[in-house]
Amino acid sequence: MAVTAEKSIASLMRKTIDRQEAAARLNFRLKPRQVEKILLHYIKDRNIVPYRELVKVLREYPLNDDNYKILIEDCLTCLIFLGHEFKQFVELVCKVQWSGRSEEMVEMFGRFVLNLVTAHTYHCPMVLANLVAQFKAPGEDWEEHPPAETVKLWANIHSLIAQIVAIMPMTSDLLMQIVIEQFPYYKAGCYPNRAFIHNLIWMTKYLPSLREHIMTAIIIRMVEMDSNIVDRAKNKQQELMFDMEMDEKDELCSTLDYCMLEMLRWLEDERDPVLVTICNVFERIVLPTHGIKHVQFLLLYATSISQACADRALERLWAAAAGLRGAGAGALATRRGAAAHLAGLLARAVRVPNTRLIHYLKNMSEWCHSYITATQESTSNDNTKVHGAFHAICHAIFYLVAFKHHHLFASKENVNFVESLNLPRLVTCNLNPLRTCPPQVIRGFASVTRSHQVVYCQAIIEKNSRVTLHATNVQQYDDWFPYDPYMLPVSGKMIWPLCVEYKDWGRENEDETQYSGMKRKLEEDDDFLMTASPSQKLASSLSNCISPGFRTSESVM
Predict the structure, then answer these.
(1) Rounded to two decimals, what is the model's pTM?
(2) 189 Rama sector, left if φ>0, alpha if ψ -120 to 50, beta otherwise
(3) What pLDDT digit, counting tens, does each position of 7-59 carry?
(4) Which residues contact 227 (CB under 8 A, 6 or more apart)?
(5) Is 499 helix (H, G, I), strand (E, B) or coil?
(6) Considering all CA atoms of the chain, what is the largest pairwise distance in Å, rounded to the nearest integer?
(7) Is 161 in contact with 203 (CB distance < 8 Å)?
(8) Which of 53, 134, 184, 356 could share a disulfide with 192, CB 3.0–4.6 Å?
(9) 282: closest CA among 257, 262, 302, 264?
(10) What tens digit of pLDDT does each residue of 257-271 get?
(11) Is 499:193 a contact under the CB 8 Å cutoff?
């Protein structure tokens, strides 16, 4: 009983102290020139007690407009003294909430900051870091546009950053370093990541020299999210997951979804300058990355809204796949990825004309035939390492013939073109590209070409199956197709209309395809996203082999 009584007394005392402190904060008043006197006494007489109390006030007490005005006015008066020894004080002043105050207060704070960083460049990194950090402050998520009040706060911050860079141009490099350091962790949630990306895009409008650097930082973080989503979807097929982990994964899907939406709107709004940048960043960051499912659709969107961008992207991908730019460390993986992306864009992008399909199919077949001729004397059996690029480009051809069969066999002229590719030579050559081709592509390609009497693959397929059964070292095929059906529902509304929907050769009369099915469910049932989250649908697509747009690996036969 005594212990309980002591706890009750302690609790009452704590509540009393809290009420007194709250009242003190509410009644706190700064006097004109009070801050100036404290700082000057500290400099001249080393009177540290008032200075420490001032620091405590700034750390713990919220300042009303009157107190804030006195603080900034006094700081402006003794600005020349605010060097290294006042680092803690200056940082606390910069952290006091200012962007939501009156125009007079915002202007006064801006004047203080600009004078501070020019008089004492030592403080510049801290000032910029505090400004950038405010872009990831807690807030409420939005659908179409951020709330007007939030936009006003952000506008004040951007205005100050722009002024700092204008008077100190060399700080742009420092700003970019701070942006990278301040980027929210990918698990931080949807709002911090989306708000930060939204403001980085805003930053490129007044600092165009940082456009490519900023886009690179954003894409790197989004690739990290995408990779984690895919890894978790694969792990779900192997082990049971707790409900908490499922919620975390769904939150990550939602985060990437809205980040993709911000990037797609950026591409749509600014067009040409940003489209050139996305091609450069894609080649450096996304192309060498294997297995992701979503971020690459930024390139599909870019190629869909600009034919010039499409031609540039397709040309670069073909040059990379064919090794026309030389080879270096890791070049084989990049060439395979380039072939997969090239085939995916030619097959999936609605607005890439079929003339480009014909052009690149011709280029790919000519390259493969030249390769076969050049390697006829080769005795190497290590197909995946020595001839990996050849296999990747052959797989791209097989994929395109299966996927675009409606166009390639629509007329006698087109059939003649397919026959001119001399596909039988690719299928029957000693390098045997069918052996390492994903089964679902083999089935689609074999079914289509057999039906049109262009190639008969069955004998090769059966031979490869027998060899695989008796082989101790089975060569693994690459079943990753970059432009699989896009599964994120919010950004998907911008991407789905730009994607070609695959129809199985054996299901000519079936009208509903993957994207139309997803759109129908979204329109008919508001609970569709609750019953099947993006992560669950992605896990399902991985487990059911809906890889290249084919409904299942058996459906084509």
Answers:
(1) 0.84
(2) left
(3) 566 665 565 544 544 444 445 688 889 999 999 999 988 889 999 999 999 99
(4) 289, 291, 292
(5) strand
(6) 99
(7) yes
(8) 184
(9) 302
(10) 999 999 999 999 998
(11) no
